[in-house]
C-alpha cells in the first residue's frame, strides 16, 4: 500500500475546501487548486471558520488548528500538484469538466499517483477511461459538510487495482472517516437512495401536498433526520441535486427517476440553495 505524504485537492468550493481541511487535519500536506484567488480565498476562509468552531467547542486546540492551516497551500495552477501522491478532484458535477481535469492531471502527475474523484454520481469507469492510468482511478465520495460527516463512499471503476482501493480506504480512515463501498453504478448507494427522496419532496411542494416547513418538519421529526429534505437540498446545492437526478435517470432509464420540474425551474432561476442566498429557503 502506497504511503501518502501530499494530497492535491482540485476545487475550493464547499466540498473541496472541506476535503482539504480533513486531510490537513490528518497531518497530510495539502495543495488546493481553483481557477482564481477569489475562489481560493473563500475556500481558505471556510476552512478557518470551520476550525474556529471546533476550537470554540474544545474539540481541537488552537495549536492543532494553526498546524492544520500551516499544512495547506493554494494554487491556481494544476502544475504545482506534480509531487502529489493522491489528487482528489472536487469540482462541479459536470462530466466534461471532470474528464478535462483528469486528462490534464494524468499528464503532469508522477506515474504512481492516484487520481480520485469526489463525484457523487458520475461513472468512475468513464472518468478512468479518459486517462492513461485507469488502474489508479477511484471514486472517493465525501459527504457534505466533510468536516462533520463520518462517511466516505469508495467507488471502484472496472479497472481499479486492489492496492489503489486499499490506499484510498486507509487515507479515508486516516482522515477519521468510515468507509462504505459501492459498485460503479448511477448515483452509487448514497445518492441512489437520497436523491429520489429529495426529488419526491420537490414533487410534494409542486403538488401542494405541504409547505416547505411542513414537508421538512414531517421528514425531520417523523423520520428522525437531522434536517428535512428541502433544507438538505439547499445545503447540497439544487444544481448538484438536479445533475445527480439526471445522471440516475439517464443511467437507469426508468421514469421514476425523472427530475421534478419544480427542481429544474429553481435551478433555471439561479435559486441554487445556501450558496446563492436563495433556494427553497432564503439565506442572508
Ligand atoms: N465545520 C465545523 N462545524 C460545523 C460546520 C462545519 N463546516 N457546519 C456546521 N457546524 C456545526 C455548527 O457550529 C453547530 O454547532 P453547535 O450545534 O455546537 O452550535 C452544528 O454543527 C450545527 O450547525 P448549524 O447550527 O449550522 O446547523 P445546521 O442544521 O445548519 O447544520 C449539519 C448542521 C451538520 C449540516 C446537520 O444539520 C446535518 O447533519 N445535516 C444533514 C447533512 C447530510 O445529510 N449531509 C449529507 C448530504 S448528501 C451528500 O453530501 C452526498 C452528495 O453527493 C450530495
TrEMBL record:
Residue span, 3-hydroxyacyl-CoA dehydrogenase NAD binding domain: 7-180
Lineage: Eukaryota, Viridiplantae, Streptophyta, Embryophyta, Bryophyta
Record's keyword terms, sorted: NAD, Oxidoreductase
Annotated binding of CoA, by residue: 50, 57, 120
Annotated pathway: Lipid metabolism; fatty acid beta-oxidation
Residues given in the record as NAD(+) binding sites: 11-16, 34, 93, 98, 120, 144, 275
Superkingdom assignment: Eukaryota
Entry-linked InterPro entries: 3-OHacyl-CoA_DH, 3-OHacyl-CoA_DH_CS, 3-OHacyl-CoA_DH_NAD-bd, 3HC_DH_C, 6-PGluconate_DH-like_C_sf, 6PGD_dom2, NAD(P)-bd_dom_sf
Catalyses which reaction(s): a (3S)-3-hydroxyacyl-CoA = a (2E)-enoyl-CoA + H2O; a 4-saturated-(3S)-3-hydroxyacyl-CoA = a (3E)-enoyl-CoA + H2O
Family matches, as Pfam families: 3HCDH, 3HCDH_N
Entry similarity comment: Belongs to the 3-hydroxyacyl-CoA dehydrogenase family.
BP terms from Gene Ontology: fatty acid metabolic process
Protein name as catalogued: 3-hydroxybutyryl-CoA dehydrogenase
GO MF, any single term: enoyl-CoA hydratase activity
Record-annotated site: Important for catalytic activity: 141
Domain 3-hydroxyacyl-CoA dehydrogenase C-terminal: start-end pairs: 187-283
Amino acid at each position: 500500500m502506497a504511503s501518502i505524504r501530499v494530497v492535491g485537492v482540485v476545487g475550493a468550493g464547499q466540498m473541496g475546501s472541506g476535503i482539504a481541511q480533513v486531510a490537513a487535519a490528518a497531518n497530510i500536506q495539502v495543495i488546493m487548486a481553483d481557477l482564481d484567488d477569489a475562489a481560493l480565498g473563500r475556500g481558505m476562509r471556510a476552512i478557518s471558520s470551520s476550525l474556529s468552531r471546533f476550537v470554540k467547542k474544545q474539540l481541537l486546540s488552537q495549536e492543532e488548528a494553526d498546524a492544520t492551516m500551516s499544512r495547506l497551500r493554494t494554487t491556481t495552477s494544476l502544475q504545482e500538484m506534480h509531487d502529489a501522491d493522491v489528487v482528489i478532484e472536487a469540482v462541479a458535477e459536470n462530466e466534461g469538466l471532470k474528464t478535462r481535469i483528469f486528462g490534464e492531471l494524468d499528464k503532469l502527475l508522477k506515474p504512481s499517483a492516484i487520481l480520485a474523484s469526489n463525484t457523487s454520481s458520475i461513472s468512475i469507469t468513464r472518468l478512468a477511461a479518459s486517462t492513461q492510468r485507469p488502474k489508479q482511478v477511484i471514486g472517493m465520495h465525501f459527504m457534505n459538510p466533510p468536516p462533520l460527516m463520518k462517511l466516505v463512499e469508495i467507488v471502484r471503476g472496472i479497472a481499479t487495482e486492489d492496492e489503489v482501493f486499499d490506499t484510498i480506504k486507509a487515507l479515508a480512515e486516516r482522515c477519521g472517516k468510515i468507509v462504505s463501498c459501492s459498485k460503479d453504478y448511477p448515483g452509487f448507494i448514497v445518492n441512489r437512495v437520497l436523491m429520489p427522496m429529495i426529488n419526491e419532496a420537490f414533487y410534494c411542494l409542486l403538488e401542494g401536498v405541504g409547505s416547505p416547513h411542513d414537508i421538512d418538519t414531517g421528514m425531520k421529526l417523523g423520520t428522525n433526520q437531522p434536517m428535512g429534505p428541502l433544507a438538505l437540498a439547499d445545503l447540497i446545492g439544487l444544481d448538484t441535486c438536479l445533475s445527480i437526478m439526471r445522471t440516475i435517470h439517464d443511467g437507469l432509464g426508468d421514469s421514476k427517476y425523472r427530475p421534478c420540474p419544480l427542481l429544474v425551474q429553481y435551478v433555471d432561476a439561479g435559486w441554487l440553495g445556501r450558496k446563492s442566498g436563495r433556494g427553497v429557503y432564503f439565506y442572508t
